[in-house]
## 1
Amino acid sequence: MRFAELLRTKPVEHVLKQNRTDPTTPDDDTGRGTGDGQLHQNLRARDLVGFGVGIVIGTGIFTLTGLQAKENAGPGVVISFLIAAAVSLLAALCYAELAAAVPTAGSSYTYAYSTMGEIFAWIIAWDLILEFALGGAVVARGWSGYMAGVFDLPERWFAEEGSVVNIGAIAIVAVLGWVAMRGIRESKWVTNGLVVIKVTVCLFVIAVGAFYVDTGNWVPFIPPSQPSDADSGALTAPLWQFVTGVEPSSFGFAGILVAAAVVFFAYSGFEAVANLSEETREPGRDMPRGLLGTLGLCTLLYVGVCLVITGMVEYTDLSEGDAVADVFDQVGLTWAGILIGIAAVAGLTSVILVDLVAMGRIGFAIARDGLLPPVIGRVHPRWGTPVVMTVLTIVGVALLAGLVPITVLAEMVSIGTLFAFLVVSIAVLVLRRTRPEMERPFRTPWVPLVPIASIVCCLGLMASLAVETWLRFVVWLLLGLLVYACYGYRHSRLRRVSAPAEPVG
């Protein structure tokens, strides 16, 4: 294995040609068809926003809001959501340029392949697998818990605690996996319907809850800093506090940053929209609208809901599990709490579905490049979806959701997302320098300031995550490098095309 081969890049022209190639048409580089099939172009900007809102609005707003307000930020959790939104906006501007110019499945994986080299592309691909698979499992368990609360289902099969096998989580993954397999249009219809429900209920929370806001609950808006639980241990401290030796603390500005790093999970997944660029009719126009529209709509709803729930009750009285529904119970609107619980079920359902759809596209892109076995990227001739990868995703996510109690690993979704944003921001800078003549239907403004600001902010939020989260992330990446060394490096299509002929005998 030569180091130079690890840094080989995939030409942008090859990526675009690969998207257009019919599976029966010989590939100019290899002399044979790809055998992968093509994805169907059925999506417009409004559909992309639907998918984006479908995956973004869910676990973050329905569960993390109360937890982080109570433990780290108080009413200042609103600022935490705005910080996370600002970092996401910087990354979205970078994503928009690349997704419009290089419309392909795989998003940040493919962008890294075209700019920084194969090894970095594989690391990003492995990171995206972590983000979407683990995120889907976390949300499936949350969905099951909300179902148990709304419909009084047996806790041994549906609750987060006390269940040996979470039947509810397994069932929802299986049902939505079937929808994801059947086609992008079917997934679009289901997602858009669920999005309408949960956006309506978020607006309901803001409109009705505003009448019960007591501004005294916002004082102090940022509670004064105080030491964290002494029994929590060094591994649970934010990385920057561990490195600098600063005593771990909650609330204050440090608490705002910690909460921002964790609630970043609430924005994780909007980049899944970029994975759908190969299935978009006019990616140069629709991808920027889809990415920025998703982020703008979700941020407005997040800020409104956070202001209302922290104003309705004292932040110390917020529920750590179902804060949005619980605040209405506390002010005597039990019927509203039940309605919101039902909306939470709908919201979490759409998140799981888009996670499964995105995972299928990531696997399709990786297998098409030879870094995973070709059968994984096979597209169903009638449904037009990467059915093998989708089935593998369903099995993996269902096992995680059904058998593993996932709590602290939610932070790993945040670190995975931030790492992907970091790479995309770097990719914009590299391509602007190496390919200045490339057609860019959308251009990130104020380059290099915006990409550099995105890089710095991503690193800052990553440093606010716990040391143990970093350790788990490093272990996952090392496992990925082992898989690449054993299979991906030897079977890379780019390596076979560029490698000199080996002597026979």
## 2
Amino acid sequence: MKRTYWLDLFTGATWNEFLEAGGNVSGFRESRWTTVQKIKPGDYLICYLTGISRFIGILEVLEKPFKDKSQIWKDEEFPARLKVRVIINLTPNTAIPVLALRERLSIFRDLKSAHAWTGAFRSSPSKWSNEDGDIILNAIQEAKENPIERPVDLRKLNYRPKGFKSKIGTVTMPAPDNEEPGSKDNKSYTDHTEVQYLLLKLGSDMGFEVWAARNDRGREYRGKKIASIPRIKSELPNQFDEATNRTIEMIDVLWLQKNNFVAAFEIESTTSIYSGLLRLSDLVAMQPNVNIPLYIVAPDERREKVISEINRATFSRLTPRLSEICRYISFSALRDKVKQIESIVQYVKPEILEDLSETCEVNE
């Protein structure tokens, strides 16, 4: 008999709270009750840590669903509940990165965009195919018997912005910023130029043609002008209407291959982080079927702000939602990766961006 698998999403915090409470009750939001009622005793829950994108365990459902509001989790009730037992339990360091199973899981097949696979992790519980479930179960069993330690970014593990239900889905309500929106000091300007230069040079070294926003080409990083980077293009291909082309021309960094867009990057080193998001939002609004992987690159200390802002209602009304197709890259992660691959950069593929970046989606 084939087993039924369901995805069960956790943050690092909610996973720890689940285990500390005994590891015998898993819960979901009230809005997921209809789906939870479809889960049967004997079904398996695939446990996935959203912040670090890793599979961490397997739970077996023991009884029919029930509702209960007794406290297990600190920040939310998750009243749609299931009695479970832990079949396999890994640690965050030994948990399996989803991208390690890229070649085997069906969620990576026939993607309409580079980040489309993240849609499979937008809400839980959600039913998964027997094929993918078996692959993940076997991989977790193997990881239990032969663990591989992989470093974990504790900020990614422990933080997710709180989502609020709305008519258009789950959105965030960012806290007010105490600084003056749009302010730009000398450090922000210097950081922006450095990161822009690193992204342009990285793309060029990987063999791509690159594009820098026209108004940035006179900038210099360590005595080297942006305009002097090899393979920088003077004109972009006219694939879209005039309004779209003008929007694309203002994007900080583009990678291209034979006139096809490989990736688009907006760098946000200022307080407001709004201009880049609005530019990407305009692009998606005008070309909803655009198939360009989008990235917001921002300082480490702005990470929470970026993820909160990108899930605001105004960006969540887009089709697709901006958070579904735009990922976050931290300044430190970019700098570290550039140093790490310096000697082999010509052999590196654009898939490196998946490992370098993280999702901006808030899970339901």
